[in-house]
Structure prediction request, 314 residues.
Amino acid sequence: MKVLIILPPFLPIDDIREIIRQILPDGEISTSTDFTEHNAEVLVATTFTRIDGNLISKLPNLKMIQISSTGYDNVDQDAVKSRKIMLCNIPVANKESVAEHVITMALAHLKNLIHFHNEILKGNWPVLTNSMDLMGKTFGIIGMGAIGRKLAERLLYFGANTVYYDPVRLPEEDEEILGLKFYSMNELLAKSDIISLHVPLTPETKNFIAEKQFNTMKDGSIFINTSRGEVVDEAAMIKAIKTKGIRAGIDVYSQEPPDFSSELFRLDNGYFFTAHSRGHHGKPAEVYNGNSRQCDEICAGTPASLQGAMIERL
Prediction:
């Protein structure tokens, strides 16, 4: 099994290379798609690599694509289908980590942690604050997939009033277990103190949260996006931060790494940034062990532990 692993150059490639040698001894690592042709049968990649028709055409022996995360919107599925290539992801790779990260971002804003940190570094002692508790706050979750459900489960312990919107409503029994109330999209936007976005990137969800949606939100509410950058209109978000006091927690961007000259990174306050780190959490060995095991099982014809990870046998 000839395996090609394409990684973004900003990762610690040397460290990862040593780990992969132990897990996938025949795996070849590249940080570029700028090659003429490769005889790989399996391609392992992150969401940072665009897998389009041009790249697939350079891999004439390709039988399987393994995406080392939940999302696979970076893959041209029509090109994959035309070649009858198997496309796999890791559907529950990061649900725990993303749920914790969302709550961390919410608490950082509610407790004004960045402000306190900066003030103390300046030699100030800000005793009087407007810090708030998560208990009793209305926490709106948009998208009730695996990550949305895990977030709702975690919020039970904080005493938040958790509401959600999804095109497909959960059974009443599940809502009761998770302490959830179903709201329409507009009602959720208008009533939530904190909003967390968990939707896939599709043609229908591009700029899903735009000026109209930001205008519906409460002034000063917290908006968190750990899904995909392109589901949010960045210009509208910047305007909402400046005019409505929206406090943003952003882990994903329409371009990654992002354009650091964007106005988004020059705002005085109202934001909390991380580097799409929740989809690539944990030790590299754990991440690539999962990829390796999945590749081995599929190629051996015994995908016993996939649990839905095979998106399509195209």
